[in-house]
Design brief:
mainly alpha; 49 residues; 3 helices; 92% helix; plasmid; elongated
């Protein structure tokens, strides 16, 4: 059952887009650092509130 779902998702174009997006992030460490920084800032803000 799970394999069938996975196969269906992989055929989907959205899956390809997500993969490309992940690869782009992997290829740009600056973006990863920036996103991590943003996330930690958001978490800190949540803790304050």
């Amino acid at each position: 059952m799970l394999k069938a779902i996975r196969d269906f998702i992989q055929k989907d174009k959205l899956y390809d887009e997500i993969l490309k997006f992940k690869q782009n992030i992997a290829n740009s460490p600056i973006l990863v650092i920036f996103l991590r920084f943003k996330m930690t800032k958001l978490i800190e803000l949540e803790k304050i509130n």
